[in-house]
Write a structure and sequence with these properties.
Elements: H1 6-14, H2 20-33, E1 38-42, E2 45-49, E3 53-59, E4 63-67, H3 70-75, E5 84-85, E6 90-93, H4 100-120
Antiparallel strand pairs: 1-2, 2-3, 3-4, 4-6, 5-6
Helix pairs in contact: 2-4
């Protein structure tokens, strides 16, 4: 059984009442795509770890930030053209539905990436 720190992540999500459902949706999507990942708080935001950092997400004023790292941004750049991105982050506007299928694919990519890094060691 993977340790889960639900209370702390629940507290984080609970403070954003207007967007609580969206934050819970992204959390559930990540959990389903990577059930072996540990859920915790890192950098003061919800974080999933599996053989190292996997992904993070956080509430901002007008978007939900999703942080899969630079390699995922590069790998999915063609599918991210409608979103603001930076080196390791994607901004999902809160007034639009979350691209849950895309988020799941990115998480699976990161799981695979972290597993291959571990095998090389």
């Amino acid at each position: 059984m993977v340790p889960v720190n639900f209370n702390i992540v629940d507290e984080y999500i609970h403070q954003f009442s207007a967007h609580r459902n969206q934050l819970q949706e992204i959390r559930n999507t990540i959990s389903k795509a990577a059930p072996q990942a540990e859920e915790t708080i890192s950098y003061d935001i919800p974080t999933f770890k599996f053989k190292g950092n996997l992904v993070h997400f956080a509430m901002a004023k007008k978007h939900i930030g999703f942080y899969p790292g630079p390699s995922a941004i590069e790998a999915f750049k063609d599918k991210l053209t409608q979103y603001v991105t930076s080196k390791g982050a994607i901004q999902f506007p809160v007034e639009q539905p979350l691209p849950l299928a895309l988020i799941a694919k990115i998480v699976l990519f990161r799981v695979s990436e972290n597993m291959s890094k571990t095998k090389k060691k």
